[in-house]
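A further point concerns the way the authors explain their paired sequence and structure data. An entry of this sort, consisting of the sequence and the corresponding backbone structure tokens, reads as follows:
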Amino acid sequence: MSNLIVHGGRPLRGTVAPSANKNAVLPVLCATLLTDAPVTLHRVPDITDVRKLLEFFRALGSSVEMDFASGTLKLQHGAGLDASRATLPVGMRSSIMLVPPLLHRFGRVRLEDDVTGCTLGVREVDPHIEVFRTFGTDVQLEPGAVTLLAPRGFSAADHWLEYASVTTTENFVLCAIAARGRSRLTNAACEPHVQEFCTFLTRMGARIAGAGGSQLQVDGVEALGTVDYTFDDDFHEVATFLALSAITGGDVSVRNGASAQFPLLDRTFAKFGVDVEHRDGVSRAHVRGPLRVRPPFTANILQKVEAAPWPYVPADLLPIFVALGVRAEGSVMFWNKVYEGALGWSAELGKFGAHAVLCDPHRLIVYGGKPLIPAKVESPYIIRVAIALFMLAASIEGRSTILNALPIRRAHPRFVDNLNALGASVEWVAGE
């Protein structure tokens, strides 16, 4: 079941609870390999990447008890694990965060070349290799793979990242926890999911200072202990449901335990005529009349949305604002400062009747408010592009098809069930 059939034109109304953030869940799962103690996690989402990691753990010989109905996972990675029985999961960027704990346990890891994830452009591994080398890992290049060797473990290190990469920051922290001595990282990523990752590790006994800022200090520890942890609400999913409410002219109340992360997102919604209200742990999007782009105070320039590493607007959320821009009367420039290939899907917008011009690999101008028609469109392997295409389909009366929408299942459990409960008419169907 890889395609979505959407009967649009129905305002979404009701109450919905977001899931946990996959960008926090997956690194945390990788980090559990640093301890032999039992770990209990709550609100683990039933998404494809989680299932891939749990299968990897089972192949290693770990004890895995997963109840997807309740979202509770009980894990224990004992001393008898066998790395030869498992291959790193492919098609997901998080696989690269298995490298530090596996090096810590076994002293050797083979990294295949398909550690990619969404097709957002070049997903280089060079910054990760630099981190591993900084901690004393020997790196051997082979055709189609890299073998990493650290038979004597990690030594403490100081490192300065070229850019604030989330997964590279998390890999540094994982190495530093297992290293001897104090390590320091400059230009660290500070996204909410990085902060949650550090919070989880601290509760296991890690000593991390500076989370949420650009400099981290990590003291290596002898061992990490047991932990019982509940994941936070995913601010990406909260924003997504608010955008769906606004674009369909609906009224959806979204549980939001992460409202402290929303001031800039609220101002970004406001650029399209959407006012977001946060009250008593619930968020709602209010639209008075049709969506309209609010012109900037500076004359003769376009309204714009710039996406970059936190605390900018997250690049992951840029597609949902593109969808709002297509619907809103007025013109907006969207600027993805992170990925050079993340806006190539804009040609699909034209199938709905939208007017959009790709200026270069990083910038897109949308001339919104044009008449739209139902369409059959194809999603690239990018989670929230599939959602953005769905948003437009849901706002247009008639039957639309989103081909290759499967990436949604990498981040959003029960996506279709939640939408239909809000009054949508959408179903998964098999691809041709």
In short: Confidence is low (pLDDT under 50) at residues 116-122. The chain has eleven helices and 23 strands. The first helix runs from residue 22 to 31. The first strand starts at residue 3 and ends at 8.
